[in-house]
Amino acid sequence: MKFYSGLAIALFLIVGTVRAQHANFGVKGGLNLYNIENDNNAKYDTKTAFHLGMLLHIHMAPHFAVQPELLYSVQGATYNTGNGKVNLNLEYANVPFMFQYMFDNGFRLEAGPQVGFLINAKSELNGSDTDIKDSIKKIDFAIGAGIGYIHPPSGWGVDARYNYGLSNINENGSVNSYNRGFQLGVLYQFQHK
Question: Which of the residue ranges 14-18, 66-70, 84-88 would you say has the lowest mean pLDDT?
Answer without folding.
Answer: 14-18
